């Protein structure tokens, strides 16, 4: 890894190794000895196509049936493990941590430089346009709520019912109107539905909010085509990239979206930072998202006895309070790690594992993998869909091309909470079960008539919940193989332990 190293004496930046590329690393204003530590630790990362090193692979999970196994984290879609290089970078920076923006001291200046360079690194990672800006937030949820707070009064927001609640719900504030669009059953239908809704809308500001990849089905949405439709009708578009950015390169200019939102904790950098990147005009015209220090340029008592504020322009306007410099730095470090590993190679390896997941689950007739778009899921519209050949492996391969590594499914005769509990307690595997903060989507996929989750064991008439398995850059092949073997055995032989319902979830019975 090349690092830009500031001379401690002069504060000027010089290349530490080879000339920086267009995917420049964060300029870390460390003395060169510390930079060497950071550089060496990160440089040990093996190149793709192996998994990228993440923490937690040696954690052993106790089994209810006795013994223990290395924990298999297959819940990347909720929160991904931390990349080792991110952890090392944070550890190397930690002694230099200081207050950002307002301190005159040496470490404050260095931390301010780290924070601003992290912003620049994220902008490069996203291919931001010249007049875009990157705001650091707490998460995708925070980013979308920030944008909602900055929309011009009267904005109509168009959102599919299939969105994660973080994208579905922020647009309910005063002065906004939300148009909810029915679940489309193909990428073409998504574009046509949006076109129709926009064409019928009256004049005025409009925003489309759409996911890049579903947190339930993993299916990739036709973002470029939706952006084209939005812009054709004078609307803007924000991409909820929470599930896309960790799995595929996202270029804001190439996709031609107006904003992108994502979270660090899904991008191997769980230090509390998220991003909203994109157009500045609406953001600069809006009241600050949070009122407080940092967002205000001047504050003075007014003639009427109150207080008058002149707000900042630029990112500071919406970043009031003390910035999360470690979170921002970690997030930028993850961007750099993916770029340096060759993001296309990382994505190709994930695609192979996703294909293996889909093919393995496809061999079990009791398993139904959830899909909104079915065999017509060619979101990019590139005509590469081989899924119609009727061959199961071809179908898995085609489906994997149109998904990130997120697969949800239900098993005939199984309550999903029961299956997830058995995977954990008997195989040391962590997956997610439930409705994944996408209740209308689950209702569309499973049928709203299905009853709520019942007791553990085979539910009467099914349950409105599913199991989600999700992978990422750090997933070893063994985790996927263990998961497939576990589902096969559980479906064939049943659980080896007894489970009871506690607070609505299945848990192993302590005395079984
Ligand atoms: C598609 C999608 N959007 C938004 C979010 C919200 O992310 P966060 O909880 O980090 O705010 C999630 C989280 O799972 C998600 O999957």
Structure report:
The protein has two domains: 106-340, Type I PLP-dependent aspartate aminotransferase-like (Major domain) (Aspartate Aminotransferase, domain 2, 3-Layer(aba) Sandwich); 342-508, Aspartate Aminotransferase, domain 1 (Alpha-Beta Complex). The strands form seven sheets. A seven-stranded mixed β-sheet has the order 7-13-12-11-10-8-9, with helices on both faces. A four-stranded antiparallel β-sheet has the order 16-17-20-19, with helices on one face. 50% of the residues are buried. The radius of gyration is 24 Å and the shape is globular. It is of the alpha/beta class and 512 residues long. It has 15 helices and 22 strands. Helix content is 34%, strand content 18%. The chain starts with a strand and ends with a strand. The structure holds pyridoxal-5'-phosphate (PLP). Pyridoxal-5'-phosphate binds at residues 139-141, 164, 166-167, 211, 215, 240, 242-243, 263, 265.
Helices and strands, with pairings:
Elements (H helix, E strand, L loop, with lengths): L3 E3 L6 E3 L11 E2 L3 H12 L16 E3 L5 E3 L1 E2 L10 H10 L12 H20 L7 E5 L2 H11 L5 E5 L4 H4 L8 E5 L5 H14 L5 E6 L11 H10 L3 E5 L11 H4 L3 E5 L10 E5 L2 H5 L10 E6 L5 E5 L13 H17 L1 H20 L4 E3 L22 H10 L4 E6 L4 H12 L1 E2 L1 E3 L4 H8 L19 E5 L6 H17 L5 E4 L2 E4 L4
Parallel strand pairs: 1-3, 6-18, 8-9, 8-10, 10-11, 11-12
Antiparallel strand pairs: 1-2, 4-5, 7-13, 12-13, 14-15, 16-17, 17-20, 19-20, 21-22
Bound molecules: pyridoxal-5'-phosphate.
